[in-house]
Amino acid sequence: MHSAEPRRRDRRRARHEATKQEILDAAWAMVRAGGLNALSLRALAHDLDMEPQSLYTYFASKNAVYDHLFAAGNRELLDRFARLEQTDDPRQVLGEIARLFVSFATDEPARYELLFMRTVPDFEPSPGSYALAVEVFSRARSALAAVGLDDDADFDMWTALVAGLASQQLANDPDGDRYLRLIDDAVAMFADHVFGTQAAVNVNRSLIRA
Amino acid sequence: MHSAEPRRRDRRRARHEATKQEILDAAWAMVRAGGLNALSLRALAHDLDMEPQSLYTYFASKNAVYDHLFAAGNRELLDRFARLEQTDDPRQVLGEIARLFVSFATDEPARYELLFMRTVPDFEPSPGSYALAVEVFSRARSALAAVGLDDDADFDMWTALVAGLASQQLANDPDGDRYLRLIDDAVAMFADHVFGTQAAVNVNRSLIRA
DNA sequence: GTCTATATCCAGATAGAC
DNA sequence: GTCTATCTGGATATAGAC
Question: Which tens digit of pLDDT belongs to each residue from B60-115?
Fold first, then answer.
């Protein structure tokens, strides 16, 4: 009879985790529908047919819910990084990363807002969640470094360009692709700037041949 | 005695407008201190030593206050446009406009947020205020067209680049100039892309001379 | 034009019974 | 683990006396 106890605890824990996940799923649905600041514990409880107070069994506060969403968003980004096609072509790498971020933004604007804009008052990610964000950052940093892009200012320019495309897409054409379709052009512009233009490369080749 | 009445009405109206402006000044101070969503009619009234209900004499709703801030922000932008140095040099024009927008953002982040991000739930500018925003847009559009930049996609790329620099500056280095100091480089990158590189120009000159 | 009083609704969070 | 009951505080807005 002693041996049954641990299994019972496991089942309870599993149930607990399952409920927690249901709450998080409902939270995603809520921010998806009404924006990041539309998250409300009362409404969340209502959607799940429970009393608001019961949520505190699973999350210590509303910001704890945000923290789980924040962590999940960063894990999703890391997954997408892991699935990137491997290549040595700098322009292809830049294009892949830009598409990764901008589609991450358009897929779920609220998630992008949570991770990259500072729009939830008083929310600070926990150390564990923040570590995931740092991992995302260094992942991007080293992906660019691998193709010869290791200058800090260039990196900042790149993130500004990608963030600009993403935020304009969300703000001005949330359901279209007006800025999404500028990605290839943006990559060409940026790559020409930091690596030299294809034209310049051709000129250099001519000089070498001469 | 009849002639005194209009003057009394004028004085009353002037007093009314003065109080209205005091409220707006306090509102600016509030969003400056606590962010755009920190605006609260209760707190506003408290700062002005009045009851919250009295504010309704001056503004029909909280969003009416936001609307006045929105309009004032756009008027300030138009003023800055009017004060731009006149020049035919495309790169100089691009640089001036970029600095105009990014410093407009860093001078008062909440104002930039109100005008260019969609971060106040349920706020829609009134037709009159929106008209000012449209005027700002067309002002930027025609300033670029005047130096030969009239392609829609190029314009979108430009706004994305400038918006990206501004938003990254606000989000990642609000008190510094990490992205501000990239403006010249960004202008060069963009201008090279749409007008051709200086290198390419030199090559063309060589060809013409040869 | 400003006040008191009030309506209505929302929020996050805690204590303690069961 | 979930509930009832409650605390505390916030919000926007309206009615009507003065």
Answer: 999 999 999 999 999 999 999 999 999 999 999 999 999 999 999 999 999 999 99
Condensed to tens digits (0 to 9), the pLDDT of residues A125-160 reads: 999 999 999 999 999 999 999 999 999 999 999 999
- The CATH topology of domain A9-60 is Arc Repressor Mutant, subunit A (1.10.10)
Look-up: residue for tokens 């009353």?
Answer: B12
Strand D positions within 7 A of protein Cβ atoms: 1-6, 10-16
The class that CATH gives domain A62-209 is: mainly alpha
Task: Please list every residue in chain B whose beta carbon sits closer than 8 Å to the beta carbon of residue A179.
Answer: 156, 160
In chain B, where are the structural domains located?
9-60, 62-209
- The answer to whether A116 faces chain B, any CB pair under 8 Å, is yes
A210 touches chain B (CB under 8 A): no
Name the residue of chain A whose CA is nearest to B36's CA. Answer: A119
Question: Looking at beta carbons, which residues of chain A come within 8 Å of B182?
Answer: 153, 156-157, 160
DSSP secondary structure string for all residues of B99-121: HHHHHHHHH-HHHHHHHHS--ST
What's the token pair of residue A64? 């704890």
Identify the CA nearest to A165 among candidates B194, B148, B168, B99. B168
